[in-house]
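Lab notebook page, bench 4
Experiment: in silico fold of construct C2
Operator: M.H.
Input chain length: 236 residues
Purpose: comparison with the prior construct
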Amino acid sequence: MSTVIGILGGMGPLATVDFVTKIIQQTPAQRDQDHLPLLVHSVPQIPDRTACLMDNQSSPLAALVKGVNTLVNAGVGCIAIPCNTAHYWHDALAQVSRVPVLHIARACSESLAAQGVTSVGLLATDGTLKAGFYPRELGAYGIDLKVPEPSLQQQVMDGIYRVKSGAVVEGGKLLEYCMDEMLRCGIERVILGCTEIPFALDRINSTRRPMGMDATQALAAACVQWHAAQEHPAVA
């Protein structure tokens, strides 16, 4: 079986680069040849996922399926999608894929459970909240979830789209404020459930960053673990 990891990216481009960086950072490598083989499919023209879920605009599913098929036909052994909202279509993509499609919320939930966390908040797009896969995945591990009040959620969306537009520092400061507001609710951690959020918080060197559970980081770790299992099945 191929050990190449396919990355279905472009949602957005900065988040895709950030995800690749996190895979590299978590790989135990001493030389170039020790790093994971990756094949990145970054096509930003995939229709907006949140706009589809919230405003009944164009569905991204056909474009996502095309990306999956491109990666599978190129010979990857598994696929990771560094976009939280796109996981609304995870089951549909898994059905058409001949290789495993990793799940970002599942990877995040497993990591939180391993740390003994029992209560979290979620910063994510409106689409991700509506999709409902985080409550499902977290609930399987007995982890309670709190989401922002509507007025705060509007600011979360504002921060995310500022980052997407290139105003990373401005968006990061707003997202840091949103994270602070969530932490006031007494939860243990805040899931950074949009790939732009950890990127922006890192850019502003946020002091609140350690309280965030980076879903992108968890998915990157799942990629490293998957590759290790293929290379050394008896060990992993």
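Observations: The chain has a mean pLDDT of 95. The two ends are 16 Å apart (CA to CA).
Next step: discuss at group meeting.
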